[in-house]
Specification:
2 strands; about 120 residues
């Protein structure tokens, strides 16, 4: 599978994550931010090599995290700076490692819910 296809898969995985205010919630925001930023960075690197892939991935993923919290606030919920911050921290990891690593979410649903990250080195 090529890098840009992995980027699309990472973006699709990041759209299916959901969270609440617990440690697992912040981990899922972190994993979603990392997968989204990594996917955006890979796609940016492939289709727009003249742009800085790091800033495209980190910036767009962070913006999506903040806008998502803003949408939750606008619909009567609360804006969680912790959720937005966790997403941005994951975005930093995802955008930073895209040149040598790719990160993908690791979801396991047998008897318990598990969300994690897998990082693989690109040769």
């Amino acid at each position: 599978m090529s890098r840009w296809q992995l980027g699309i898969v990472a973006l699709l995985f990041s759209l299916s994550l959901s969270a609440n205010d617990s440690f697992n919630s912040e981990l899922s925001h972190f994993a979603g931010g990392a997968a989204m930023a990594g996917g955006i960075s890979l796609l940016s690197h492939h289709y727009y090599p003249e742009q800085d892939a790091f800033w495209m991935g980190f910036g767009l993923s962070s913006l999506a995290g903040v806008l998502g919290e803003g949408a939750q606030w606008a619909s009567g919920g609360r804006f969680s700076a912790l959720d937005a911050g966790s997403h941005m921290a994951g975005s930093l990891l995802g955008a930073t490692t895209v040149e040598h690593l790719y990160i993908q979410p690791d979801l396991y649903r047998a008897q318990e819910h598990y969300v994690g990250l897998q990082a693989r080195y690109l040769l």
